[in-house]
């Protein structure tokens, strides 16, 4: 979970303590959604997100056309890095 999500959850807790349960719940749900979308993608998830096949994605990594992190012997992809470092974000 990133810093923004954590801060949103803290604010949500304060809202709930103040008796504002509906806005607190909405803010907590937003924090969870942000955290979910901020995680690293697997090869299958990244290929689906990019609309390409796994082999194409593997070739893009091999050609260094797309940023990837090797974690535990498997590639992971950060959406923000992919958009920032490729023409996809232009």
Task: Describe what you observe in this structure.
The chain is mainly alpha-helical and 90 residues long. It has two domains: 3-37, no CATH class; 43-89, no CATH class. 62% of the residues lie in helices and 7% in strands. The protein has five helices and two strands; from the N terminus they run ααααββα. The protein has helices spanning 3-17, 21-37, 43-50, 54-62, 79-85, and strands at 69-71, 74-76. Helix 1 runs antiparallel to helix 2 (21-37) and helix 3 packs across helix 4 (54-62).
What keywords describe this structure?
2 domains; mainly alpha; 90 residues; 62% helix; 2 strands; two-stranded antiparallel sheet; elongated
Write the layout of secondary structure elements.
Layout: H1 3-17, H2 21-37, H3 43-50, H4 54-62, E1 69-71, E2 74-76, H5 79-85
Antiparallel strand pairs: 1-2
Helix pairs in contact: 1-2, 3-4
Q: Could you give the distance between the termini?
A: 27 Å
Question: Main beta sheet, described?
Answer: 2 strands, antiparallel
Distinct helical segment count? 5
Radius of gyration over C-alpha positions, nearest whole angstrom = 17 Å
In short:
This protein is mainly alpha-helical. 62% of the residues lie in helices and 7% in strands.
